[in-house]
């Protein structure tokens, strides 16, 4: 593909992903489409002229999954994935590009390449990523901390034309599997909420006085219902205050708002997977998107995965059944699927759209 063809394709992809916003405000028109496409194309040409890397300039990679019998190891350090196992010589090095399509653009991501391997046993598909990262960023409690992450993206509908690589587009849904180093450290899928990191993990001597409003909130159920009681008395309510009952505490000082108390947590009470680790099945979050700013966690989590950091490298394995009953999942029913990759380096303060990316590669299974 020539550079001009690549630029035009990028313009088409970005325009498609922008349509979701235009249509909301009923501002979309053919004239606007042409103008938008021209502006995007001009921006990409200018970026190329200035020597900036353009997403899509790298050739698409073909990753062929090794066909095996038996279980596929989910441990990235298992000998199966090593140079002494059956996947020896099966890796493909994929070049990572800067995300230069939408703001905030990220012209110099830390990750320049990723080694990719894949395997299938006829029931499951597994993809292993490995990349250089001299720092392990798997704690994100303080506001100045950022986490290492990696993601795979597939079209929900693998038939027909590929959706925009910009996280899909309006009516062109993608399925994203995002591994998070923080979830990995917290043993997501095994440790539950007890494994979650909280403020007291970073500030060991923190304490809150008895005047803290956290101590008087309900027990986390947030039912909003008061217990029956006679006028002028709250005795029936006090009997059901749970952890908010000071008489049940050994001290009036709260040594931690999170794990040690667990009383006031609206995110957990409302079923937010970011707050409630019991909803996680592994260190990988199963998501959907239809363009920029539409990323949504799935009600049903189907992807297993874990990562290891050693010798200044992360290695992560994603595993999922070839077929699921979830209509929001991509289904591996053919012989190949488009697959895009994204990687974030927390040490470089990368998050959201500030990342290293690829366009669609081909996963053959």
Description:
The chain has 365 residues and is an alpha+beta fold. The protein folds into two domains: 59-189 and 280-364, Immunoglobulin-like (Sandwich), CATH 2.60.40.1190; 199-266, no CATH class. The chain is 16% helix and 22% strand. The chain has six helices and 15 strands. It has helices spanning 3-24, 30-49, 181-185, 199-202, 235-238, 266-269, and strands spanning 62-64, 66-67, 92-95, 97-98, 113-120, 124-132, 149-155, 174-180, 284-289, 296-297, 304-310, 313-321, 336-344, 356-357, 361-364. The strands form two sheets. Strands 1, 4, 7, 8, 9, 10, 13, 14 and 15 form a nine-stranded mixed β-sheet that branches. The longest helix has 22 residues, at 3-24. The chain is globular.
Features:
2 domains; 16% helix; alpha+beta; Immunoglobulin-like; nine-stranded mixed β-sheet; 365 residues; disordered N terminus
Task: Please specify the SSE layout and strand pairing.
Layout: H1 3-24, H2 30-49, E1 62-64, E2 66-67, E3 92-95, E4 97-98, E5 113-120, E6 124-132, E7 149-155, E8 174-180, H3 181-185, H4 199-202, H5 235-238, H6 266-269, E9 284-289, E10 296-297, E11 304-310, E12 313-321, E13 336-344, E14 356-357, E15 361-364
Parallel strand pairs: 1-15, 2-5
Antiparallel strand pairs: 3-5, 4-14, 5-6, 6-12, 7-8, 7-13, 8-9, 9-10, 11-12, 13-14, 13-15
